[in-house]
Design goal:
The protein is built from 14 helices and 17 strands. The chain has 504 residues and is α/β, with parallel strands linked by helices. The strands form four sheets. Strands 2-1-3-4-5 form a five-stranded parallel beta sheet, with helices on both faces. Bound molecules: adenosine-5'-diphosphate (ADP).
């Protein structure tokens, strides 16, 4: 407990008992508690034990003189704040200056006036009291500050103008592995946290000298243990010079991010898997049409070959040209057959090549070529109304082909079930900032029980249908940041429209 106001202790030091007595008399009744010492050693001992507010210190004493006592007092943190007033017959200004230089607060010449001593003691006791209160409040504030700093999750490091560490909270110690006590007063760059990052070290130095704040989402720091840690770093300049650095350990966040990325990749693989299965199934269905279509050119190949054989038997000169014509027809037909098979193979087997910048019209022209076989077998034409000057899209060509082919085949099937042969209309256009294509048929339209869950897997009205075409299409379109929608054709039939974001 601090002594009450007015009951501060004053230590009187003089080797002369008469002088001591006079001092006693002078201060008696002034409300202060008085202690006395007759030499330097005794003065230091009492000062340390009692921590008086003030010492009236005689300069000229045998053994340790007053100046020496003062120096000892000031060198010891426990007694450094005690106010020292020198009392001396030495009145030359040099000793006064010396006394003040080594930490004394005042100098009273002997013989002294009672009033003067009292007035000066009062003043210095008052100052001392205020100083002690201020120091206490400062410590309290510092403690409070430290508590706040230690409570936050971020590591906080204070730097001065020269880039030296002025403070460091517990979290900063935990992140960097450096004890606060080892860092305060040291150059921050000595901790070598951003070892190889010269640019960053440079920006930090600039920041301390009054530069602009900096913010890094992800930097690696090498902790004292040698461990490399990912942190987010923020540096702000301080009004009084120097900077405050905030470090946040982002290892956990990165791990979550990594897990999320993996989950996304897994989903993508699954999506591609499903899309591939669906292509295989569509491919199987298309096989019958292909067999039929390939058969015709192959029959022609056989026939022409026979003719060629006959022509070969009698090799008259004038027939040689005819023979060449026949042979070139063979080649054309064989190539046609090969092309049909090639298209089919590449559709089924080609793995997704990833996304690229595409022109939607070009992709749909290819799809129409693929659908040509079905179109001819069913005698249902497919028309493309290609919109002009459409911006490019960023898409996976194989997946886009798959969506379009599925819609066109569904449309042809529905048209043929309705027993008419209105063409299927495919058109491309720009709407609401999205690149779109739609497939419109004049078939029977959708059964109401199907419409509700049209895009759910395994919903089918067909006997051998898998019912995954539309659900896969939806997943592909959404995976591209777009969508697919159904709407009834007012003239009877169905319209499916797909939209893609424009690629900039
Ligand atoms: P699947 O064709 O194997 O049945 P889809 O997912 O492609 O699988 O289609 C699901 C169902 O949606 C079809 O069985 C059919 O009932 C309906 N459907 C799809 N497209 C059309 C269309 N253009 N006209 C009428 N019904 C359609």
């Amino acid at each position: 407990m601090m002594p009450d106001r007015g009951s501060e202790q004053i230590l009187l030091v003089d080797d002369n008992p008469t002088n001591l007595q006079v001092l006693f008399k002078t201060l008696e009744g002034s409300g202060y508690r008085l202690l006395a010492a007759r030499d330097g050693e005794a003065a230091l001992y009492t000062a340390k034990r009692a921590r008086p507010a003030l010492i009236l210190l005689d300069v000229m004493m045998p053994g340790m003189d007053g100046f020496e006592v003062c120096e000892h007092l000031k060198a010891d943190p426990e007694t450094a704040d005690i106010a020292v007033i020198f009392l001396s017959a030495l009145t030359d200004s040099q000793s006064k200056v010396h006394g003040l230089a080594i930490g004394g607060v005042d100098y009273i010449a002997k013989p002294f006036q009672t009033d003067e001593v009292l007035a000066r003691v009062r003043t210095h006791i008052k100052i001392q009291r205020l100083e002690r209160a201020l120091a206490r409040r400062n410590t309290e504030l510092e403690d409070e500050n430290q508590q706040i700093l230690n409570a936050v999750e971020e590591g906080i490091v204070g730097l001065d103008l020269a880039g030296r560490v002025t403070s460091m909270n517990a979290q900063a110690s935990a992140i960097t592995g450096w004890a606060t006590a080892d860092c305060v007063g040291e150059l921050f760059s000595k901790l070598n946290l951003f070892a190889g990052d010269e640019a960053l070290n440079q920006s930090l130095a600039l920041l301390c000298e009054g530069g602009v704040g900096l913010r890094k989402e992800h930097v690696s720091i090498s902790a004292r243990t040698g461990q490399i840690l990912p942190v987010a770093l923020m540096g702000s300049p301080r009004a009084e010079g120097g900077a405050v650095l905030v470090l946040r350990d982002i290892s956990e966040w990165l791990q979550n991010q990594f897990a999320l990325e993996q989950a996304r990749e897994e989903m993508d693989t699954q999506r591609q898997h499903l899309a591939h299965i669906e292509r295989l199934s569509t491919g199987g269905e298309m096989a019958a049409g292909i067999a039929h279509e390939v058969n015709q050119p192959l029959t022609a190949v056989t026939n022409y070959s026979r003719v060629a054989q006959r022509l070969l038997l009698d090799l008259p000169e004038d027939r040689r040209q005819k023979m060449e014509e026949v042979l070139s027809k063979i080649i054309i037909q064989a190539e046609r057959a090969a092309a049909v098979i090639q298209r089919m193979r590449s559709y089924v087997k080609k793995p997704s090549g990833g996304r690229e910048v595409l022109n939607i019209n070009e992709v749909l022209e290819d799809v129409l070529a693929l659908a040509e076989v079905d179109s001819r077998v069913n005698a249902i034409p497919v028309h493309l109304n290609a919109g002009e000057n459409l911006p490019p899209i960023f898409a996976d060509e194989v997946q886009l082909q798959q969506v379009a082919l599925n819609l066109i085949r569904n449309a042809m099937e529905s048209t043929s079930n309705a027993e008419h042969s209105n063409p299927v209309e495919v058109s491309t256009y720009l709407q609401g900032g999205m690149v779109c294509f739609k497939v419109k048929d004049f078939g029977a339209g959708l059964a109401p029980e199907i419409e509700e869950q049209l895009f759910s897997p395994f919903v089918t009205s067909k006997e051998g249908g898998m019912g995954i075409g539309l659900s896969v299409s939806k997943s592909i379109m959404q995976g591209h940041g777009g969508d697919i929608r159904f709407q009834a054709n007012p003239e009877g039939g169905a319209i499916f429209s797909c939209e893609f974001p424009v690629h900039h």
